[in-house]
UniProtKB/TrEMBL annotation, chain A:
Subunit architecture: Core component of at least two putative endosomal tethering complexes, the homotypic fusion and vacuole protein sorting (HOPS) complex and the class C core vacuole/endosome tethering (CORVET) complex. Their common core is composed of the class C Vps proteins VPS11, VPS16, VPS18 and VPS33A, which in HOPS further associates with VPS39 and VPS41 and in CORVET with VPS8 and TGFBRAP1. Interacts with RAB5C. Interacts with STX17, MON1B. Associates with adapter protein complex 3 (AP-3) and clathrin:AP-3 complexes.
Ranges of residues in domain Vps16 N-terminal: 4-420
InterPro entries membership: VPS16, Vps16_C, Vps16_C_sf, Vps16_N
Gene Ontology cellular-component annotations: CORVET complex; early endosome; HOPS complex; late endosome membrane; lysosomal membrane; recycling endosome
Protein name according to UniProt: Vacuolar protein sorting-associated protein 16 homolog
Subcellular location per the Swiss-Prot or TrEMBL entry: Late endosome membrane; Lysosome membrane
Topology within the bilayer: Peripheral membrane protein
Keyword Cytoplasm carried by entry: no
Free-text function comment from the UniProt entry: Plays a role in vesicle-mediated protein trafficking to lysosomal compartments including the endocytic membrane transport and autophagic pathways. Believed to act as a core component of the putative HOPS and CORVET endosomal tethering complexes.
Residue span(s) of domain Vps16 C-terminal: 519-837
Primary location: membrane
A biological process term (GO) from this entry: autophagosome maturation
Length: 841, 569
């Protein structure tokens, strides 16, 4: 225990700082750090070094090298820098490397040195060159701020959504500011710069001079400034050797102010530390590191090597050629437990557990002591929390053991916090491993933005798929969020391996992914297509179960025909339609029609659409197919719907008839020709006789003629169109009855023998309630229907006689059913008798 | 008289949930356009909408005026217009004209188009072509299942028949699949699935795909409906083309039942105005006669009238207390029953007037002759006479179609000058080579009867056609259910030209209760007739099943023929 606090350094009365090694770096640097442009990403992110920058005049033939290492110094990428001189490097929140060139171009590289994209910071920057640049992080993402040769600032608060802002001019600024930094307040990025003894705050609209409250007089220049990770605190280093610390708002917020004479040498780095009991700033010089706080005393460390400081949320990472260390304030829980002679419940519990392992009775004494004070719950909580802050697994274990030991004596201690801590530590220890090199602290992992999702993303970004999957499985994340997502990323990476054949890649991907829910094969295929591997993309799409996802990509890849068949397979007509319209624009008309021809479903769909929207296209479609039958129908339709004038209609019908002939549909052709003749005739009738004839059927035309008394013409028409005799008789019969022209009807009935018999005459007369006329015809009805006719005219008795004569059973019962009540009593008896007689025989 | 269900008949699931669901969704959509608005409703949607949400509910959600979507300029003065339409191109044009007219007049209003049951890409494209895509907001009202009765769900998509079977347009298949998906989400997946027909197969496969994509929740549900049977209308046009003689079918043929209700004209109500009557199981009188052969209905009704009179008469001998009881409890019910009874008697009279004439009997006789396949010559001459007399073109056409199919699609086309286009269309779609004769023989569709078929005590499903013919569609369903598969029906399937499209699918599910296994959902793609419904209801009673019907629309012979003839736009 004593030695455990050996690396603790007190700052003021209440805080301790400790520095411990994260990794020993074996990155084998040839150059000194100071000769390189260095950028290290926060949250234990990667380190980028651009060796051989242009500030030293060297032979132009030697190209600089850009190296990317993990935080543990494992090389991730190395590439020759072929573009222009770089002024500044920085990492974005998505762990993309932003390289700001002198000409204002920003090149974006991935973690593995893969070029992503580039963008420019504007013409003004291009003209005046970049003097200095900073990459900074806000809640919206990562921004770039640039100081140009004309001493103007340009910034973009989010490189993902590039909006350039040119900041207002600083009045009287002739030379570069001695130091400057970006601040982020109220969700807006500002620039704070120092020119001689003056400080200016630049926002979008204005430049305002600010004076830090309580600044010691005599300052003629600010040499360095630093803002805390969260932009809440600011530290200024003056040429008088003072450090001013306060809130970043620079408002009169005294008490945040502290001064201490340190040195007249300009510090290399300053990192401000908020969120602790003691505000402090870490200052580094060539060989000296200092933690300065409110207290008069400061902590000093000697640096053996050239070092680089990376500000983190809860501390500072310090790396040099050989080591990577972490400096932070000892968290409260750890301090309580490990402080020398601490009587905190946690400390006692840890002690108790140790004694218990030694099988010593002291364990009981310690435990009793805690229990008497009623602080056991607190003790367990302290131990759990402290475990989180420890870097060494051994220490974590012993603390957790103590917690678990203490838990046994508690009735109701909710287990979640303990379980969660164990899980978290396992994950953290795994990623802290030298090979992985993500030195995350518990606080960063749990309390700040970096969730498990982001952590997994980072592992995926480093192509550490197996570890990511293990973590998912260990934490039992739902497949869709966890394993499937990672597998999809893996597949996307896999398709980029150009040296592997399409078949192998597709097979490998399908083997691993199978039918894992939540994996979108179309996304992977889209990636493959993005890499120019269309064939692979198509192969991958085969595995995509949802056609809706396949089709758009196939269209994008210009595999429209395949897309069409997929769309048809899906049965989703909307999808088919999408493809159709795409094809229509893409292909020339002929090819488009040919494609349709092989796809009946698509064809009928398109026809439906054309019927409503593009009638002409429909015609072309039928023409193309030599579908004369449909073409004929089309013209028939056109003759009724589109044409107004009779000539036009007849012409359309003629075209239709021709088409029907071609289709060898003689019937339809003949019928169409008849209709043409009829139309012409009807027109003539209208001209000569007046009245409405057009669009009547032949039958109705003849009827109308008869009703109008034009019997001659009616006969003529019937002959011309060869109306069958039967039909004509029916027609005349009905028409004459309607006219109630009984005389004419009788004449007609006698004109020759009726082809339809005389029953209809009876019926029709009865319909007009003319019993007298009906009876005339009833006598002429043939024997088979005689009974019916007689019944119709109501002559039951005679009907009975005929039926008996016929000896027809059916007829007999029919008559019987017509016998009603008393009047026909005699008739009924007669029938019954006849029946009886018939049965006897 | 009316057949009671067997005591062990399973309970039907509660389908009123579908109504509530549709209503809530509609209200939600209306609320998306806050403030007063005028609602334009497509004519076809009016009756279904009426069954879901009445005017007062619409008013509650700030619908100001209601208009019908028709080819007339709208005179709405509201600042917000909401259109409730089927996804049809002509509706899009209507909306586009309206919006563009507003634009010309420099008027800005809010427009919202609600497509029911879903929107189609083609519609959106038309809106885009007309240049108003950005001016309107589009939404979908996924209202695809309307419970018309306790055992009858209708999609109310009469155009399904024409679109799919005549035009080969498959867009409604997705809607069917969605509807099945909804049912399986609400009432559990169906453990046993059968189907026949290309459309049935495609709908089924699409639905399975939907289930797979979205599995999870539905899996755990205990299936309430044990079987599903999908059937394409083109498997059996014969049944649909026949005149109906079961009461409900007759009412449909005569008065046209629209969306579960019928308009009885003055000749039925024996007053001077028409009356809209809801026909479903809640109508006690109707419920007892709906499945009866028409020849029994009148006798039943008069019996009922006598009973009713007797019940009224009981009050003669009552003392004050009994009378009080009678008035407060029974009288209302009796009055209600009285009202219904007089309505149905009126309807019967009206039907009798129209149908029991000789014409009708001759017609039925001819139909039966066609079905049985004898005296073809007489039937043909009957049809010729039918044409000669110009009775009704649609009727003539129907008989010709029936002739064509029953004679195995060898059309003996009687020459006619009228409506050549209609005939071409109808024939090209119907007169495919059918094998009706062989199927009829194979499945024994024409019962051999010795003596009179007693319609009062039906023996088989043939009673719905006076004992002359067992509906083919129902027979197929009966046979498959009996075998629990298509096994042994290979020949029939081949004769139906459907070898590729007959399927059985058993999804292993031990949770299905024996109760649910006797519930069968029959899906008619392209519509079904009331005769078929009655026949299957009869089958259910015989075998202890309950059938639930899902149809794209309730159809009959006239609707079928009208759907196939071209309407002048």
């Amino acid at each position: 225990m004593d030695c455990y606090t050996a690396n603790w350094n007190p700052l003021g009365d209440s805080a301790f700082y400790r520095k411990y090694e994260l990794y020993s770096m074996d990155w084998d640097l040839k150059e000194e750090l100071r000769d390189c442009l260095v950028a290290a990403a926060p949250y234990g992110g990667p380190i980028a070094l651009l060796r051989n920058p242009w500030r030293k005049e060297k032979a132009a033939s030697v190209r600089p090298v850009l190296d990317i290492y993990s935080a543990s110094g494992v090389p991730l990428a190395s590439l020759l820098w072929k573009s222009g001189p770089v002024v500044s490097l920085g990492w974005s929140a998505e762990e993309e490397l932003l390289c700001v060139q002198e000409d204002g171009a920003v090149l974006v590289y991935g973690l593995h040195g893969d070029f992503r994209r580039h963008f420019s910071m504007g013409n003004e920057v291009l003209q005046n060159r970049v003097l200095d640049a900073r990459i900074f992080h806000t809640e919206f993402g990562s921004g770039v701020a640039i100081l140009t040769g004309a001493h103007r600032f340009t910034l973009s608060a989010n490189v993902g959504d590039l909006k350039l802002r040119r900041m207002p001019e600083v009045p009287g600024l002739q030379s570069a500011p001695s130091c400057w930094t970006t601040l982020c307040q109220d969700r807006v990025a500002h620039i704070l710069l120092a020119v001689g003894p003056d400080l200016y705050l630049l926002d979008h609209a204005a430049c305002s001079a600010v004076i830090p409250p309580g600044l010691a007089p005599g300052v003629s220049s600010f040499l360095q400034m630093a803002v805390s990770f969260t932009y809440r605190h600011l530290a200024l280093f003056t040429d008088t050797g003072y450090i001013w610390m306060g809130t970043a708002s620079l408002k009169v917020d005294v008490g945040d102010m502290a001064m201490g004479l340190v040195s007249r040498v300009c510090p290399k780095h300053m990192c401000s530390r908020p969120r602790s009991k003691e505000r402090a700033v870490v200052v580094a010089w060539e060989r000296r590191l200092m933690v300065v706080g409110d207290a008069p005393e400061s902590i000093q460390f000697v640096l053996d090597e050239d070092s680089y400081l990376v500000p983190e949320l809860d501390g500072v990472r310090i790396f040099s050629r050989s080591t990577h260390e972490f400096l932070h304030e000892v968290p409260a829980a750890s301090e309580e437990i490990f402080k020398i002679a601490s009587m905190a419940p946690g400390a006692l519990l840890l002690e108790a557990q140790k004694e218990y392992e030694k099988e010593s009775q002291k364990a009981d004494e310690y435990l009793r002591e805690i229990q008497e004070l009623g602080q056991l719950t607190q003790a367990v909580q302290q131990c759990i929390e402290a475990a989180g802050h420890e870097h060494q697994p051994e220490m974590q274990k012993s603390l957790l053991r103590a917690a678990s030991f203490g838990k046994c004596f508690l009735d109701r201690f909710p287990p979640d916090s303990f379980v969660r801590m164990c899980q978290d530590l396992r994950v953290l220890n795994a990623v802290r491993d030298y090979h992985i090199g993500i030195p995350l602290t518990y606080r960063k992992y749990r309390y700040k933005q970096l969730t498990i999702q982001v952590l997994l993303d980072r592992l995926v970004l480093r192509r550490l798929y197996p570890l990511a999957i293990q973590i998912c499985e260990y934490l039992r994340l739902p497949e869709v969020q966890g394993v499937s997502r990672i597998l999809a990323h893996w597949a996307c990476y896999k398709v980029q391996q150009k040296d592997v054949s399409d078949e192998d890649v597709a097979r490998a991907i399908n083997q691993k992914l199978g039918d894992t829910p939540g994996v979108s094969y179309s996304d992977i295929a889209a990636r493959a297509y993005g890499c120019g591997r269309t064939e692979l993309a198509i192969k991958l799409l085969e595995y995509e179960p949802r056609s809706g996802e396949q089709v758009p990509l196939l269209l994008k890849m210009k595999r429209s025909k395949l897309a069409l068949s997929k769309a048809i397979e899906s049965g989703d007509t909307d999808l088919v339609f999408t493809v159709l319209l795409h094809l229509k624009n893409e292909l020339n008309r002929g090819d488009f029609f040919m494609t349709l021809r092989n796809q009946p479903m698509a064809l009928s769909l398109y026809r439906q659409f054309c019927k409503h929207q593009e009638l002409e296209t429909l015609k072309d479609l039928y023409n193309q197919d030599d579908n004369h039958q449909e073409l004929g129908s089309f013209h028939i339709r056109a003759s009724y719907a589109a044409e107004e004038r009779i000539e036009g209609r007849v012409a359309a019908l003629q075209t239709a008839a021709d088409a029907f002939y071609k289709a060898k549909n003689e019937f339809a052709a003949k019928a169409t020709e008849d209709q043409m003749r009829l139309l012409r005739l009807q027109r003539r009738l209208e001209d000569e006789l007046g009245g409405q004839f057009l669009d009547l059927s032949l039958h109705d035309t003849v009827t109308t003629l008869i009703l109008g008394g034009h019997n001659k013409r009616a006969e003529q028409l019937a002959r011309d169109f060869r109306i069958p005799d039967k039909r004509l008789w029916w027609l005349k019969l009905t028409a004459l009855a309607d006219l109630e022209d009984w005389e004419e009807l009788e004449k007609f009935s006698k004109s020759k023998k009726s082809p339809i018999g005389y029953l209809p005459f009876v019926e029709i007369c009865m319909k007009q309630h003319n019993k007298y006329e009906a009876k005339k015809y009833a006598s002429r009805v043939g024997p088979e229907q005689k009974v019916k006719a007689l019944l119709l005219v109501g002559d039951v008795a005679q009907a009975a006689d005929v039926a008996i004569e016929h000896r027809n059973e059916a007829e007999l019962s029919l008559v019987l059913s017509h016998c009603t009540g008393a009047t026909d009593g005699a008739t009924a008896d007669k029938i019954q008798r006849a029946r009886a007689q018939a049965q006897k025989k | 008289m009316a057949f009671p269900h067997r005591p062990d008949a399973p309970e039907l699931p509660d389908f009123s949930m579908l109504k509530r669901l549709a209503r809530d969704q509609l209200i939600y959509l209306l609320e998306q356009l806050p403030g007063k608005k005028d609602l334009f409703i497509e004519a076809d949607l009016m009756s279904p909408l009426d069954r879901i949400a009445n005017v007062s509910i619409l008013k509650q959600h700030e619908v100001d005026k209601l208009y019908k979507v028709e080819n007339k300029p709208a005179l709405s003065s509201s600042e917000q217009l909401c259109f409730l339409v089927r996804p049809r191109i002509k509706n899009m044009r209507y909306i586009a004209n309206l919006v563009n007219a507003d634009k010309l007049a420099g008027r800005t209003r809010k427009y919202k188009v609600i497509f029911s049951p879903q929107k189609f890409y083609a519609c959106e494209m038309v809106l885009e072509e007309e240049g108003i895509y950005g001016d309107v907001s589009c939404d979908e009202w996924a209202f695809s299942l309307l419970p018309l009765d306790v055992d009858l769900l209708s999609m109310e998509l009469p155009e399904f028949f024409r679109d799919y079977f005549l035009e080969g347009d498959q867009r409604w298949i997705n809607t069917v699949a969605q509807a099945l998906h909804l049912l399986s989400t609400l009432y559990g997946s169906f453990p046993n699935c059968y189907g026949i027909g290309r459309c049935a197969k495609m709908s089924y496969e699409l639905w399975r795909k939907l289930e797979e994509e979205e599995d999870g929740e539905t899996k755990g549900r205990r299936p309430e409906i044990g079987h599903i049977f999908l059937l394409d209308r083109d498997m059996d046009f014969v049944t649909a083309l026949c005149s109906q003689v079961v009461y409900e079918g007759l009412v449909d043929d005569t008065f046209r039942i629209k969306c579960g209700s019928v308009d009885f004209g003055p000749e039925v109500t024996s007053s001077d105005k028409s009356l809209k009557v809801l026909l479903n199981a809640e109508d006690k009188v109707f419920n007892e006669i709906r499945n009866e052969h028409f020849s029994n209905v009148f006798g039943f009704l008069s019996q009922k009238a006598r009973n009713l009179q007797a019940q009224y008469d009981r009050r003669r001998g009552m003392d004050i207390k009994q009378m009080k009881n009678f008035v407060s409890q029974e009288l209302k019910g009796l009055k209600q029953e009285h009202r219904l009874l007089s309505l149905h008697i009126g309807a019967c009279e009206s039907i009798m007037k129209k149908k029991t004439k000789q014409d009708f009997q001759e017609l039925i006789k001819t139909e039966h002759a066609l079905l049985e396949g004898f005296s073809i010559r007489e039937s043909t001459s009957y049809i010729e006479e039918h044409i000669d007399r110009q009775v009704s073109p649609i009727e003539s056409l129907r008989l010709m179609c029936l002739l064509s199919i029953t004679e195995n699609g060898e059309p003996k086309r009687p020459k006619t000058d009228k409506a050549a286009g209609k005939i071409t269309d109808a024939f090209s779609s119907l007169a495919k080579r059918s094998n009706f004769r062989a199927i009829s023989k194979k499945l024994n569709l024409i019962p051999r009867v010795d003596g009179e078929y007693d319609l009062k005590v039906p023996r088989d499903m043939a009673y719905v056609f006076s004992g002359a013919y067992v509906p083919l569609s129902c027979r197929i369903i009966e046979q498959v259910l009996e075998r629990r598969s298509w096994q042994g029906l290979d020949e029939v399937v081949r004769l139906l030209n459907c070898s590729e499209f007959a399927f059985t699918d058993m999804i292993k599910d031990d949770k299905a209760s024996s109760e649910s296994l006797r519930l069968i959902l029959v899906v008619f793609l392209g519509g079904c007739t009331f005769s078929e419904i009655s026949a299957l209801r009869f089958l259910g009673r015989e075998k202890g099943y309950r059938f639930i019907f899902l149809t794209t629309a309730v159809t009959n012979s006239a609707r079928l023929m009208e759907a196939m003839s071209e309407v002048k736009a």
